[in-house]
Amino acid sequence: MSETSDKIVELKNVSLSLDNQIILEDINFTLKEKDYLTIMGSNGGGKTTILKIILGLIRPNNGCVSVFGTNPCQSTYAGKFIGYLPQHIKSDLKFPINVFDVVLIGRYNGLFKRYSEEDKQKVIEALEIVGMENFKDRQIGKLSGGQMQRVFLARALVRNPKLLLLDEPTASADPEMQQSFYKLIKVLNEKMAIVIVTHDVSAVLQYGKSVACVNRKLYYHGEKEGALGKLQDAYKCPIDLIAHGVPHRTLQEHKYL
User: Fold this and answer.
1) For 228, which of 25, 41, 112, 138 is 20 to 30 Å away at the CA?
2) What angle (nearest 5°) sits at the alpha carbon of residue 9, between those of residues 5 and 10?
3) Which of these, 39, 50, 57, lies nearest to 10 by C-alpha position?
4) pLDDT tens digits along 181-198
5) Fold for the domain defined by 7-90+160-254
6) Residue 31: which of 56, 4, 60, 68 has the closest Cα?
7) Residue 249: strand, helix, or coil
């Protein structure tokens, strides 16, 4: 990536089909340093798939993907600058591992060597950022859901990423925890770009900078103030249902699939 360019992610004409089913079609957008992009759309509309394409976990059938100047499917370079918090984290809550060691795993670089003192200091710093430093010796399975989410966020932050990807990070949190989490993300946005997948319209209006409305196609990509009129097109259901968090799926008669 050029030192003078602030463009860190670019998707050009990206399309993906799996098992003869179209998942994404002709997706185009860019992300710059310290952007805060919220991706919204119907269940199964391809939102999480976009994150996985940026991570290099899925290779699109067509189009070009550039992340920090490289193709993430062909190089591990971009991964050094990305923190990722998936929606579902598989973890054995009975496994005897404490919070400190869970976050320390985020410093693993694939080489067989001992963790350094710098690695350990980065863990403490990450835990302080998310307000979990006093729980560093707590067994991971003894945390609440909200506390656990903050620990895994710390693990995503421990490598000092330039881009943070979040997939439905507050889906199981209570309203108070959701507000606290979004306020933290807004502070993090002062140092890094944020891409968050969510159905929370109120969070978009209050915290995000720009919105991408996706349901196989990209219906809108721009400032949040212009997005609400396009959300209903992307979700294929009334906007008041989205805003009140009513569970739904795209109505069959409106599907493009």
Assistant:
1) 25
2) 100
3) 50
4) 899 999 999 999 999 998
5) Rossmann fold (3.40.50)
6) 68
7) coil
Q: Where are the domains of the chain?
A: 7-90+160-254
E-assigned strand segments in 73-162: 82-85
217, β-bridge pairs: 215
With cut-offs at 50, 70 and 90, classify the pLDDT of residue 39. very high
- The pLDDT, as a whole number, for residue 224 is 75
Q: Cβ atoms within 10 A of the Cβ of 220, count?
A: 19
Q: What pLDDT, on a 0 to 100 scale, did the predictor assign at position 179?
A: 86
Cα 212 to Cα 50: distance, rounded to the nearest angstrom: 11
Find the mean pLDDT for residues 228-243.
Answer: 59
pLDDT for residue 226: 67
Q: Which residue in 199, 155, 157, 209 sits closest to 178, CA to CA?
A: 199
